[in-house]
Amino acid sequence: MGDVAVSSSGGMRPKLRPLALVLLLGLPAVLACTANLSMQLPPQKWWRALVEPDTADIAELLVFYSLAPRLAVSLLAGAALGLSGALLQQVLRNPIASPTTLGVEAGANLALGATLIFAPVLIGFGREWVALGGGLLAILLVLLLSRRSGFAPLVVILAGMVTGLACASLAALLTLFNSHYLAGLFLWGAGSLSQQDWSVAAELAPRIAVAGIAAVLLLRPLTLLGLEDSAARSLGLSLRLFRFAALAVAVALSAFVVASVGSFGFIGLAAPVLARLSGARRLGSRLVAAALLGAALLCLTDQMVMLLSSSYEMMLPTGAVTAMLGAPLLLWMVPRLNLPPHSVSGLISPAMNMIRPAPLLAGLAVLLLVVSAISATVGPGVKGWGAALPGDLLWSLRFPRILAAIAGGTLLAVAGGILQRMTGNPMASPEVLGVSAGAAGGLMVALFLFDLSARTGQVLATTAGASLALVVILALARASKGAPERVILAGIAIGALLDSLVSILMASGDPRAMRLFNWMTGSTYGVDTASAIGSIVAAALVLAALPMVARWLEILPLGDASARALGISSLLSRSLLLALAALATALATLLVGPLSFVGLVAPPLARLAGLRRALPELVGAALLGSAIMVGADFIGRTIAFPWQLPAGLVASAIGAPVFLWLLTRRQTP
Amino acid sequence: MRGSLHSRRALMLGGLAAGVLARPFSAAAVTAGSRPRIAAMDFGLAETLIEMGLPPIAVPDPNTWADWVVEPPLPADIVNLGTDREPNLELLAALKPDLIVTTPFLDDITPLLERFAPTRTFSVYAPPPGPIYARSVAATRELAGAVGMESAGEDLISRAQTVMDEVREHLAAAGLGGRSLLIVQFLDTRHVRVYGRGSLFGDVLERCGLTNGWPRASNYWGFNTVGIEELSVSPASGIAYLEPIAPDTLDRLAASPLWNRLPAVESGRIYRLPAALMFGMLPAAMRFARQISLVLGGAPSNG
């Protein structure tokens, strides 16, 4: 286990007593609830409606069977998530652990979705067991992945967030293939609290009570788990057993909530964090405070959502709203966490010597050509697999896709390479730093606020979004010097924010949302020859600009002082490089969506291959990135013929495991 | 949710065969010769083509036809184009259809489709919300003109009108005229889509002499997504829900007092309808009207 004690979050000073904070959040919740109640029923009837509703009066029935149980469920679910998060934070000794940041919610949700579609019979055994299984699988995967880092907190969270993202994109794929006829699955994932009776409350209450009792029983061993391992062991504790028991309780709590009402991102993070902020020091009081604060938070959010929905007559899933509120919280917390740095090796391969770049680059170019030729020539058709020759109609259909994949792969790899060199962070990349998400956000604004369907407008909007995200992230990076994982965590939080926005748009039923969603999966479908050639030209221009900036990329990692000594204006060079990375990301995101991970994996692979100097590394990364994207496009086009998997999603299926592998590599024990 | 139906598909197909036999054969009007080979990007257009006696050669995702459309049956040799938003272009190129028919929902990819065959767009479900049945009639006429089968089109339109009239008479004779109904589809155990004014089903209700009980304005597909508790804003005396429905939904509802206190549920006027394409055209309207007549009036109205 790592060497991080929970109390090490010394950057956060106690400011409020826990109870005061509960009241502070509870009061507006009560007000909003009162407003919602009075819309249904005059105040003098409230008591009767809550105690013995007149069965002939539909308004009283609504209060008794819809409003009241909804209130109860929001309190119960919030408490369960708060408690779950507090337990996870204690067991893992990790102040930002939570059902959301560990991928538990997304895993449970994916398990439910997949079961509904592929094995509906299993649902008969109870949704909660399916959800529990998914949640446990997700957290076990995360722990397995972060084992080699000694469960370093940030590594655990990174593994968790990426596992969560992967689960979410698989769930997205399920939605994508279920056409616009099916919205239930999606609604569910977004977490809606609407109730028709007390059954959900009645099933949640005993489950949460049992889990709560288990938590109380685990209190003493859990307190000791906060100590150093050796100290705990000397007290005669079976660490492993108690850890697993506490993890199981925490996962069960959030799986119950997901099974009954869906996922409510970040409640399980915010509540325990607030509990600690409010000065709850002892474990027992922290667990209680986290449960109470979780209840208050979810209740407040839900009552506000109800007020909003009744004013606009639209369905707003509460879960998507909590996710939207939670991501900024995570952003705010990241620089304030006081954790010992954990060095991620990335890919500074120890044994490999410098090799001559020219033959290697030529080899990579040949690889790209071969992959492209295969992709252009072969494919399944009506009568099985066949080959198409240049000049065929098929060839002309595949060619633009291949060009787009090459352009997207090149641009992302270059952007990733620049960012990795500039930040000195081997895991930086447009996808991980939220730059792609920023670009996607820009496109969202262009589509929904300005109705921009012209390509130039979209390029401008995505570039603006990417630049904005990049500036925010770099400001954060400056604030948290020497902790690359924090910056990445912040970037992933930006990505989560984007996801929740898309969820809300999707729930509105606007067909543009479906378009956005389709595009976000990174499809090269429908790229026409003109725009494919346009993007290849753009990629070539970016490549052509590299020799001019290569020197900066060699020198900037050495530090500002060395840069100045060599006569380089740090500000100017950094700004230009940033602009180049943002532009490249924006162009690539338009082509292959925000989630490909190519910008992340291509540059380290190039370094692994032995390319060390800036220019050869970037060119090699571009060739590799292109080959990965072309390969992903080919796989997506052929593997489920006639269905087509989006190239971006396929690439992320390759990229996410590589990312997790990079993450768990550790040079020194 | 959809997958839950595969087990029931055999059952549905059994019912379907009976339905086909019961209907008068009407596709004889088509002359032999060079029949255009059509790729239909939308199930509504595909069912219309089939009813006119000119089945398409390819549609997106035909495997879900039995879940959402059921009748008329798809030809057995139909080609699967993949998803509707990204139909497989290589397949289209290989199939070389004479005509591609599509809807405004897929406007984004129309320029792509046009590379493979003349492409016509038929607008039924598009903003602003409007009279879907009337739009379906107009689109059917247009479609019939586009494939040179004007008389088959007129025949379909008048057959649909006949079904509406017969159902209306049948329901009126049973004393059910003017009855107010909610048409819903369960998304999960807590949420429904309600088909309101400006939906195909809503229009059919009115043409059959019934009243659509949903008071709110719908989107241009003709539905609202709401929590089940919100159904109480409607005074409707009956609720008809459409298959498909997830396996645990009915049990959960049976235990829900709020559901049980809805006027429609209290009086036992809950009707289960076999699937009919909610975003369909005249064939779906006919199927829906027949099913309504069957479950409400207790006897088949037609054939």
TrEMBL record, chain A:
GO cellular component, as recorded: plasma membrane
InterPro entries the UniProt entry points to: ABC_BtuC-like, ABC_transptr_permease_BtuC
GO biological process, any: siderophore-iron import into cell
UniProt KW keywords: Cell membrane, Membrane, Transmembrane, Transmembrane helix, Transport
Transmembrane segments: 71-92, 104-123, 129-145, 152-174, 247-275, 287-308, 314-334, 360-382, 402-420, 432-450, 456-476, 488-509, 529-550, 571-598, 643-663
Entry's localization field: Cell membrane
UniProt-recorded Gene Ontology molecular function terms: transmembrane transporter activity
Location (main, coarse): membrane
Top-rank taxon, per record: Bacteria
Signal peptide range: none
Membrane disposition: Multi-pass membrane protein
Protein family according to the UniProt entry: Belongs to the binding-protein-dependent transport system permease family. FecCD subfamily.
The name this protein goes by in its record: Fe(3+)-hydroxamate ABC transporter permease FhuB
Organism: Ancylobacter mangrovi
